[in-house]
Amino acid sequence: MAYAILCNMTDLDERIATAAKKRARAEDAFKKADVELRNLLVEGRSSGLGPSHMAKLTGFTREWVAKIAPDPAPKRKIKIVRSKPSGD
After folding, report:
1. What pTM did the predictor assign?
2. Distance CA 62, CA 37 (A)
3. How far is CA 11 from CA 2, 26, 86, in A?
4. For the chain, does the N or the C end have fewer beta carbons within 10 angstroms?
5. Exposed/middle/buried for 64, CB within 10 Å: 0-12, 13-18, 19+?
6. Rg (CA), the chain
């Protein structure tokens, strides 16, 4: 039944189907490029590049770059030792 519909496609039908296929290919290409860029941002942070620098290179905001590629350095834990008040 689908074959019968495809055989009777008008010019507009063919253009719509072609545009849909083109869009699907473009979406796949975008997803691949997005994964590549995200991996490079993580690699850049690991090699010492800052999010502001990479934001200038990509055109994205510094906050977006920092979210995608957080600082790989371990966070310092600060322990505060308080003396106990004397119980007079």
Report:
1. 0.66
2. 15
3. 17, 22, 90
4. C
5. middle
6. 27
Q: What is the 3 state secondary structure string of 52-77?
A: HHHHHHHCCCHHHHHHHCCCCCCCCC
* CA distance to 23, 31, 38, 58, 81, per residue, from 28 (Å): 9, 5, 15, 20, 55
The pLDDT of residue 1: 40
Per-residue pLDDT of the chain (88 residues; tens, 9 = 90+): 444 455 688 999 999 999 999 999 999 999 999 999 999 999 999 999 999 999 999 999 999 999 999 887 766 777 778 888 776 5
* Both structure tokens of 87: 């119980």
**Residue 42: exposure state from Cβ atoms within 10 A (0-12, 13-18, ≥19):** middle
